[in-house]
Amino acid sequence: MENHSSKSDMREGVEQKELEARLQAVLDHVGSACQKVGRSPDEVTLVAISKKHPAQCIEMFAKAGQRAFGESYVQEALEKQEVLEHLTPGVQWHFVGGLQSNKAKLVAGKFSLIHSVDSIKLAQKISDKALAFKQKQPILLQVNIAGEEQKSGAETSNALSIAKTMLTLEGVELRGLMILPPYCENAEDARPYFKKLRELKEALEEDLRISLPHLSMGMSHDYVQAVEEGATLIRVGTALFGPRPY
Ligand SMILES: *Cc1c(COP(=O)(O)O)cnc(C)c1O
């Protein structure tokens, strides 16, 4: 029999369309935010945060044209990379989750960019491992701009000295800053944190005489504000994949 598609095939067809519409909506919002502040949308990379979602969903987004995917849990990320090996080199993997230094050796050399490096110790371990692979691992320095207790991220007052040390490590390449601000019911309330991160980046560039191309900031509920404040990498999960099945 021809054209005998099963129910699940049909459901998949609908889902693919739905995912494409969500992707397009996010890109449209990024486009209008850029237009509003006179930036080019080419300056902003959408990193689709796929943590807790199955590899199959990543594959569907890849089919829709999405290229950068971000994961938060080491084991889960490495498993998905393996399952989705056929997608590379078209796909770029980012690591955005909290990272203990004993996991550094597992992530070094496996991601285009590690967003969540918040200490010299962690950077050192990543650097050592990357050097063993004869690689230079691109990283971001995660800063706890809001000074929240018990939250990952380097203290703002230490950012300069940490960044300075990072520059001396041969196995890492410091590419910019990352922030995970406090959750704000009203996305406008996150704007001051984004602005502070941009100002910190500019200060580091001047003090260290380097160029830091990236600001990783903005999630599903506040990426528009982040783009308006200069984000070059936005980390969007829920707005693309829907709620995470915890
Ligand atoms: C989960 C996560 C995101 C995505 O959050 P959404 O609100 O689902 O868009 C972004 N950044 C980090 C560091 C995350 O852990």
Question: How does this model look, in words?
Answer:
The protein has about 250 residues and is an alpha/beta fold. The chain has one domain (about 10-240): Alpha-Beta Barrel (TIM Barrel). It contains 9 helices and 9 strands. The chain has helices at about 5-35, 55-65, 75-85, 105, 120-130, 160-170, 190-210, 225-230, 240; strands at about 45-50, 70, 90-95, 115, 135-145, 155, 170-180, 215, 235. Strands 1, 2, 3, 4, 5, 6, 7, 8 and 9 form a 9-stranded parallel beta sheet that branches. Helix 6 (about 160-170) packs across helix 7. It is globular and about 50 Å long. Pyridoxal-5'-phosphate binds next to strand 9 and helix 9.
How do the helices and strands line up, and which of them pair or pack?
Layout: H1 7-37, E1 45-49, H2 55-63, E2 68-71, H3 74-83, E3 92-95, H4 104-107, E4 113-117, H5 120-132, E5 137-144, E6 154-155, H6 159-168, E7 172-178, H7 191-208, E8 214-216, H8 223-228, E9 233-236, H9 238-241
Parallel strand pairs: 1-2, 1-9, 2-3, 3-4, 4-5, 5-6, 5-7, 7-8
Pyridoxal-5'-phosphate binds at residues 49, 51, 72, 96-97, 180, 219-220, 235-239.
Q: In percent, how helical is the residue content?
A: 40-55%
Order of helices and strands: HEHEHEHEHEEHEHEHEH
How many whole angstroms does the radius of gyration measure? 19 Å
Low-confidence stretches: 1-10
**How many E-type strands?**
9
Query: Can you count the helices?
Result: 9
The structural domain count equals 1
The CATH architecture assignment turns out to be Alpha-Beta Barrel
